[in-house]
Amino acid sequence: MLRGLMQERPLLVSSLIEHAARCHPQAEIVSRTSEGPLHRCTYADICRRSRQVANALTALGVVPGERIATLAWNGYRHMELYYGVSGMGAVLHTINPRLFPEQIEYIVRHAEDQFLFFDLGFIPLVEKLAQAVPGVRGFVVMTDRAHLPVCDIPGLLCYEDLLGAASDAYDWPQFDEHTASSLCYTSGTTGNPKGVLYSHRSSVLHAWAACAVDGLAIGVAETLLLVVPMFHVNAWGMPYAGAMSGARLVMPGPALDGKSVYELLRDEQVTLALGVPTVWRMLLQHVDGAGLKPRDELCLRRVVIGGSSAPRAMTEAFANTFGAFVVHAWGMTEMSPVGTVCNLLPKHEDYTFEQRLDIQEKQGRAVYGVEMKIVDDQGERLPQDGQAAGHLLVRGPWITSGYYRDEGGGIVDADGFFDTGDVATIDLDGYLQITDRSKDVIKSGGEWISSIALENAAVAHPAVAEAAVIGAAHDKWQERPLLVVVRKPGEALTRETMLEFLQGRVANWWIPDDVAFVDELPHTATGKLHKLRLREMFKDYRLPSA
Ligand code: AMP
Questions:
Q1: 398 catalytic, yes or no?
Q2: What is the pLDDT of residues 217-236, one digit of tens each?
Q3: Which pLDDT belongs to residue 13?
Q4: Which residues line ligand 1 at a C-beta cut-off of 6 Å?
Q5: Where is the AMP-dependent synthetase/ligase domain (predicted)?
Q6: What is the bridge-based pairing of β-strands 156-158 and 447-449?
Q7: Which residues of 252-284 are buried (b: 16+ CB within 10 A; e: fewer)?
Q8: Domains of the chain and CATH, by start
């Protein structure tokens, strides 16, 4: 082999923010703060202050490799920690505040976090947590002295005081790009959460893929609303992609209700918003209820939806009411997270609106860097014909090779593929369609029924706010689908009308055997339907047909 002669500059997270400070110094970061008002700063400010973070951590005795935790919403201070902590060689451990307190306690201990930075709103949580995690050397509240609360947290430090005492002169260390940069735990609906440990290299490569035109097409002309939280999979890598591209970033802080999100979209002239279906459902309901005219008031061009399947009805609503194109995307914590993105191909330009919606229901095509295969129960590859549904396995440079501290043991097969736990089809053009989690497929008479397809068909009914489908035991068929529906306020939808609506929208033998109505559905800490809890709720339920 002949070694190439190109420069070996490591791909480090710090290089992103230095690039942004050099090339997009005035591009803006707008944050809704825990203190109340909107805060505006630039990439140059974030770079300067992240150097202060690095100096402040050094002064606190933090050394490379140590884990520094955050319990924080999306905002500029959180972004400074993204760069300051990882840039100095320590590991940023973002904690999902929606996990149960016992789970948070578990992961702080498991990660052996040394310091914990937190937003004002999490004081009650941290007051309890502090007693249970003696290994944490200090707690830093992310505010200034004027807003410093009176609270029961030993050795409480103030973020702005720490930065105020730190120089903004700092030379980012250069080290192996495979060094860990951040840590995020999965939501752990069964068993303890498991840690996914990202590296500098994986984070930079992933950001590049996200910026690419056939990725999420992030560029300097975009204003991004990061509804997707920075405590879950690094907000889909957007704080890195933003610095790489110079895109203007808008951070909603703790206010994720429909009204607050709408106001930010309007007032900050957002062009691209990213989030999970749960948040978009709240936004659409707000727009509906308040009789707003987003087409006239907003310049939103695209909405990236991932984390759960984007129902056709939602994609249609964004197109009709907002004039915005839904970019459906799929990924997972273990994948940094982007795996596939649903952009259209040139041949789809001639398609009708309905035909395009058919494509947009799919989760899209793999971005370069992600290899996918679908296999049967025996691990044999299945054809990529858009019909055969199988276990989805992936490999690539931003996909995990194992969980932190080896929880769960070996998780890749002999060829290095990681089993996503999802069941999917892949069509001839390479479009992936997720049909289920493997634990959630409904096995009816030896055939699989897709709960996701049924749920998306049900939410197309105008009286349905949310729907979930689980398998219920059946003597003859083993399992049959039970549809659980939350009605929109004031709607009097009946079982019969619901089932009738599904006729012709899904295969006849998929039509659920029964419909149950509930006031709300259980969700996980990342906003997904909590099927395990739903199955527990209906464990004594008997289908009328069973
Ligand atoms: P998380 O690691 O919490 O981000 O969850 C990852 C899981 O969310 C995936 O394995 C899928 O089951 C699910 N998921 C993510 N995006 C989508 C999508 N667009 N459609 C359906 N399921 C999705």
A1: no
A2: 999 999 999 999 999 999 99
A3: 98
A4: 186-187, 233, 306-309, 328-333, 337, 363, 420-422, 434, 437, 526
A5: 18-404
A6: unpaired
A7: bbbebebebbbebbeebebbbbbbbbbbbbbbb
A8: 13-199 (3.40.50.12780), 256-438 (3.40.50.12780), 442-537 (3.30.300.30)
